[in-house]
Design a protein that fits this description.
Mean pLDDT: 77
Distance between the termini: 34 Å
Order of helices and strands: EEEEEEEEEEEEEEEE
Number of helices: 0
Largest sheet: 4 strands, antiparallel
Helix content: under 10%
Low-confidence stretches: 131-135, 176-192
Shape: globular
Strand order of the largest sheet: 1-2-3-4
Radius of gyration: 16 Å
Length: 192
């Protein structure tokens, strides 16, 4: 199949091929195998188009498909305001904005739109200051005014990373908010 990326969290493994197909296997306790079975064997997930990126946590799987954020599993509503309240076995669109790239984990998501602007959305349970300051939980919010972001990474530890077009790495989150805030503070590392 030619696997481009693979992720394993809890009892589920997902893989994306070079053609953008998604395969999953494992225990379907949280309905994040992409099909209605109890224990899944290696099988294809019925995604609507070629998948660009996939994000996996214990409760749900999210995927960036043709510039749109899709998801399946349990507790989709935790980070995504447009998601259904009930668990879903098949992929459903969870955010209606167009994305160049994104990263989602646990209870928040970061995305870069087609104009290079950074956005965040999450639940009230995250301690990540990127998602919380002055924002209402589950409301998609632009972070700063910059439009030169090229990559983001959300982590389970509520630490977020973003890379700007000049190769500067920006970090926020962690204990005591000791890192440079994305778009607001100083960079913490220049790419070599």
């Amino acid at each position: 199949y030619g696997v481009r990326e693979a992720h394993h969290v809890g009892t589920v493994t997902n893989a994306v091929t070079f053609d953008g197909e998604v395969f999953s296997w494992g225990n379907n306790r949280y309905k994040n195998l992409g099909r209605e079975v109890n224990t899944g064997y290696f099988a294809k997930v019925n995604v609507p188009a070629a998948t660009h990126k996939i994000f996996v946590d214990v409760f749900r799987t999210s995927a960036l498909i043709d510039g749109q954020m899709w998801g399946w599993g349990n507790r989709l509503l935790t980070p995504y305001p447009d998601a259904p309240e009930e668990a879903v076995y098949e992929p459903v669109q969870v955010l209606t904005k167009e994305w160049k790239t994104a990263s989602a984990i646990d209870i928040y998501m970061l995305g870069i739109d087609e104009m290079g602007q950074l956005w965040s959305v999450g639940s009230e349970y995250t301690s990540n200051e990127l998602v919380r300051p002055g924002t209402t939980p589950k409301i998609l919010t632009q972070v700063g005014e910059r439009s030169d972001w090229v990559e983001v990474c959300a982590t389970p530890a509520s630490v977020s990373f973003a890379l700007d077009k000049d190769g500067a790495l920006w970090v926020t989150g962690g204990e005591d908010e000791q890192y440079g805030l994305m778009g607001l503070g100083e960079t913490v590392l220049e790419a070599q």
